[in-house]
């Protein structure tokens, strides 16, 4: 008989690509988790993991077992929920860009965690361009992602990009070349800012680059550059610039999933986000 705990831990190893990281997540020692994976390999009669220089990766048999294990664990959760009187348990991992985590996650998680206190929640903050590969590798269950088309059918909420600075009328606007602080070149806000400046032939230079939202906010607060944020994530001490710069576009926020048939915990969190996110202010 396959051990459900071993299967659950195997899924965690597969998603993290590391025995050590998985051991921390499941609350086992690295040696104990390695022993579990060896026993599971004996039970199914195939090697499941192959060591690499940075961790482990699945063998072809491991890939097949992962699909079965995820389906079996999801069905297990459905059975417990259907029987009633049993508190929902399980793990759900959500990815989202850092500005969404600051603007939306406190309200999103408060209601969900109160309703399902025994569900273990794991958070990954990264740009949309990094979240999609994590979904493809099933290292996270679901993600809030940015879409350049705000009218796409999957969009749950629209957000406006805005220019922000340390004062409502910064002296930087009088410069021949506008000094900007932007995130990674592949991000939507970076591309939107550059395209907006180029559309009106406004000269600019990117003097500060940071993959950290906290870093961009710190630079804007210092008065050394103008940055771009979604309107909902603008801190109270920064000012949205209404004049002197070109209009920035509106983007859409959507949910994307690692699996077409996600487990019950993922479905419930997704339903909660769909019901709450559009109305947050």
How would you portray this structure in words?
The protein has 281 residues and is of the alpha/beta class. The chain folds into two domains: 1-84, Orthogonal Bundle (Arc Repressor Mutant, subunit A); 87-281, 3-Layer(aba) Sandwich (D-Maltodextrin-Binding Protein, domain 2), CATH 3.40.190.290. The protein is 43% helix and 22% strand. It has ten helices and eleven strands. It has helices at residues 4-16, 19-26, 30-44, 60-83, 98-103, 105-115, 128-136, 188-199, 213-222, 264-276, and strands at 49-51, 56-58, 90-96, 119-125, 142-147, 155-165, 178-182, 204-209, 226-230, 239-240, 250-257. The strands form two sheets. Strands 3, 4, 5, 6, 7, 8, 9, 10 and 11 form a nine-stranded mixed β-sheet that branches. A two-stranded antiparallel ribbon has the order 1-2. Strand 7, helix 8 (188-199) and strand 8 form a beta-alpha-beta unit. Helix 1 (4-16) packs across helix 2. The longest helix has 24 residues, at 60-83. The chain is elongated, with a radius of gyration of 22 Å. The N and C termini lie far apart (50 Å). The mean pLDDT is 91.
């Amino acid at each position: 008989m396959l051990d459900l705990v071993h299967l659950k831990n195997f899924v965690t190893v597969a998603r993290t690509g590391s025995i050590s990281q998985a051991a921390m997540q499941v609350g086992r020692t690295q040696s104990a988790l390695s022993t579990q994976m060896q026993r599971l390999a004996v039970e199914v009669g195939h090697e499941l993991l192959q060591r690499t220089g940075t961790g482990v990766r699945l063998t072809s048999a491991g890939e097949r077992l992962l699909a079965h294990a995820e389906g079996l664990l999801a069905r297990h959760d459905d059975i417990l929920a259907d029987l009633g009187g049993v508190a929902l348990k399980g793990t759900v991992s959500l990815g989202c860009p850092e500005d969404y985590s600051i603007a939306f996650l406190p309200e999103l998680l408060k209601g969900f965690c109160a309703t399902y206190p025994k569900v273990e929640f794991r958070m990954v903050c990264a740009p949309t361009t990094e979240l999609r590969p994590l979904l493809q590798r099933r290292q996270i269950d679901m993600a809030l992602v940015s879409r350049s088309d705000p009218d796409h059918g999957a969009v749950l909420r629209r957000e406006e990009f805005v220019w922000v600075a340390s004062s409502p009328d910064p002296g930087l606007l009088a410069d021949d070349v506008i000094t900007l602080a932007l995130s990674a070149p592949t991000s939507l806000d970076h591309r939107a800012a550059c395209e907006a400046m180029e559309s009106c032939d406004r000269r600019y230079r990117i003097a500060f680059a940071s993959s950290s939202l906290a870093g961009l906010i710190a630079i804007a607060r210092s008065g050394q550059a103008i940055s771009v944020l979604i309107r909902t994530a603008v801190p109270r001490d920064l000012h949205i610039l209404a004049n002197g710069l070109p209009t920035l576009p509106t983007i859409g926020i959507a949910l994307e999933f690692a699996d077409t048939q996600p487990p019950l915990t993922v479905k419930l969190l997704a339903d909660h986000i769909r019901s709450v996110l559009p109305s947050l202010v």
